Structure formats: C-alpha cells, structure tokens
C-alpha cells in the first residue's frame, strides 16, 4: 500500500478535489473547504512505532500513503455513496478529503511500513531500523 | 531503566499539520482535537432521510440503533486498541469510551422502513418518508 511520492500522489490529490464536490462540500460554497485533519494515536513500541488514524468513509482505493524525505503523508477521500438527489440538512463533516503529515525520525525504517485499513481506522506499523534496535550486550567473564 | 534510555527522542514524531495548514496553528490544532464522536451528516431526498454517522473503529454488531417516533439514537462503546504495558503513548487524539447520539428526524418518516449499513467506519441509516408526503406526479386530463 505504501507508495513512493511523485506523479502518482499528485494525480491522486487532484482526483480528491473532484470528490470534494459531493455531499461533504460546504453547502454555501463560499469559503474553500480545507482538508480534514484526522485524529491520530501514536504508540511507541519495542519494535518501532504504531500509528492509528481515524479515516471514516475512506476505502482502500481512495487511500494514499507516501514517504518523501522522511515526511509521511496520508491522504484519503471520503466516499459515502450518497444518492444523487440528496439535499444536505445537517453536516458535522464539511470536507471530502483527509490529509495529515508526520516527520519520521531516522530511527525508523520508512521502507518497511505495514498498512492495514479496517472499519475506517488505518493502522501503520513502522519498524525501528536495524541499527537502532535495542540489543543485548554480552559481558564476558574476565 | 534501560527501556527508558532506549526511548525515542522527543522529536520522534512532529506534526507537520500546522506548517501545511493555511489557518492559524491554534485553530488547526482545535480542528483536529476537539470533535464529537460520532460526527453526523444528514440529508433528505424526495423519498427518504439519509443519515451518515462517522464512527470509525467499531464492528456492526457493537452499534445500537433505535428509532422511536422520529428520534433516532445510536449508541455504543469504542474500545481502546490493544497495547503493551511497555508501550509509550506519544499522542492520543482518538475518542475512546461510551457514546450516544440522538438525532431528531423530520416528523414525516416511516420507522418501519429503515435500513442501516456499517461500512468503512461510517454507519449509514436510511429512513423512508411516509408515502403521503412523497412527491407524486399528477396527471392533467384534457
């Protein structure tokens, strides 16, 4: 699921802009809608780091995860499959795209990120790079 | 003791949101941290009322949905993610715990015709309007 940045990511972003023109767009259409900042938890484990990011309404196809110069970028478009003739009456969620970025420390191996999306929660497991793993040092008897 | 020494540096993860967000940083922080769970979007069509509850990290059978007259209530409990005692929590923004959200629907709904589907962390509830309030075509006789 992890992709290198570049054309593909840029392409995806322009696609997301189109999706914004759906149900989740600001009805007044005055102010430009900003990306939603998804809530995130970060657990630091012995093996590395685990991130949990809430992305309700995002499916695998509209999720994009990329790492560029140690910056981890997560974008996802909300897809609710709303009926065409839906007239919004109340909205807590005013934008159609989530975006969040994190800087990864050099202690982490960004080439080995494991991503899992389930029930609107993205779980990312990022291992510690080999040289930063805790190791036991044997003390030899003199 | 040793495990404390092996913790990551404080700059392990830095939120870059602020730098990339055109808003004021404080506002951006508020946007990401203060939010209701679940968030709701609602709209109407000629024939139905469509409700979308953004409730990531649940299972369908953990959601309790009731409709009494025109009051729709959704409740449940979002459990914390499993973690090791030795894990350090770097950031905790996601909602955990019991929730209940009640939504008043237009009075002309037919509670017998309700469908609920939980997909990608979004609970979609569709309630039909009563037939007498649905628009109908009237033939003009010559």
Mean pLDDT of chain A: 79
Helix content of chain B: 10-25%
Helices of chain B, by number, come to 3
Q: Which class do the helix and strand fractions of chain B yield?
A: mainly beta
Gyration radius of chain B, in Å: 22 Å
The domain count of chain A comes to 1
Strand content of chain A: 35-45%
Low-confidence stretches of chain B: 1-25
What is the molecular shape of chain A? Answer: elongated
Q: What summary fits the major beta sheet of chain B?
A: 4 strands, antiparallel
CATH class of chain A: Mainly Beta
In order across it, which strands form the biggest sheet of chain B?
2-3-9-8
CATH architecture field of the domain at 36-81 and 94-132 in chain B: Sandwich
Question: Please, could you describe this protein's structure?
Answer:
- The complex is a heterodimer of chains A (142) and B (142).
- With 142 residues, chain A is mostly beta strands.
- Chain A is 10% helix and 37% strand.
- In chain A, the strands form two sheets. Chain A has a four-stranded mixed beta sheet, with helices on one face.
- In chain A, a hairpin with a 2-residue loop joins strand 4 and strand 5.
- The termini of chain A are far apart.
- Chain B is mainly beta and 142 residues long.
- Chain B has a domain at 36-81 and 94-132: Immunoglobulin-like, CATH 2.60.40.790.
- Chain B contains three helices and nine strands, in the order αβααββββββββ.
- Chain B has helices spanning 2-5, 17-20, 25-33; strands at residues 13-15, 39-44, 48-54, 64-68, 71-78, 88-92, 97-104, 109-119, 122-129.
- Classes of the chains: A mainly beta (142), B mainly beta (142).
- At the A-B interface, strand 2, strand 3, strand 6 and strand 7 of A face strand 1, helix 3, strand 2, strand 3 and strand 6 of B.
């Amino acid at each position: 699921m992890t992709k290198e940045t570049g054309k593909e990511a840029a392409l995806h972003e322009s696609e997301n802009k189109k999706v914004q023109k759906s149900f989740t767009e600001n009805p007044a259409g005055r102010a430009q809608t900003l990306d939603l900042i998804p809530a995130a938890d970060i657990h630091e484990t012995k093996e590395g780091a685990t991130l949990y990011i809430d992305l309700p309404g995002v499916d695998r196809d509209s999720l994009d995860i990329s790492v560029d110069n140690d910056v981890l970028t997560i974008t996802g478009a909300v897809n609710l499959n709303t009926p065409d003739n839906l007239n919004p009456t109340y909205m807590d969620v005013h934008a159609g795209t989530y975006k969040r970025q994190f800087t990864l420390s050099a202690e982490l191996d960004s080439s080995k990120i494991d991503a899992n999306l389930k029930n609107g929660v993205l779980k990312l497991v990022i291992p510690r790079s080999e040289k930063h793993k805790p190791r036991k040092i044997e003390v030899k008897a003199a | 003791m040793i495990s404390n020494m092996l913790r990551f540096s404080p700059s392990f993860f830095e939120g870059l949101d602020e730098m990339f967000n055109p808003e004021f940083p404080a506002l951006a922080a508020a946007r990401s941290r203060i939010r209701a769970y679940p968030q709701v979007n609602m709209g109407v069509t000629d024939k139905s009322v469509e409700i979308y509850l953004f409730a990531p990290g649940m299972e369908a059978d953990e959601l309790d949905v009731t409709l009494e007259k025109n009051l729709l209530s959704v409740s449940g409990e979002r459990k914390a993610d499993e973690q090791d005692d030795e894990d350090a929590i770097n950031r905790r923004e996601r909602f955990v715990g019991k929730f209940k959200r009640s939504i008043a629907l237009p009075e002309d709904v037919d509670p017998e015709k309700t469908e609920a589907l939980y997909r990608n962390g979004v609970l979609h509830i569709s309630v039909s309007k009563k037939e007498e309030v649905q628009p109908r075509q009237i033939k003009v006789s010559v």
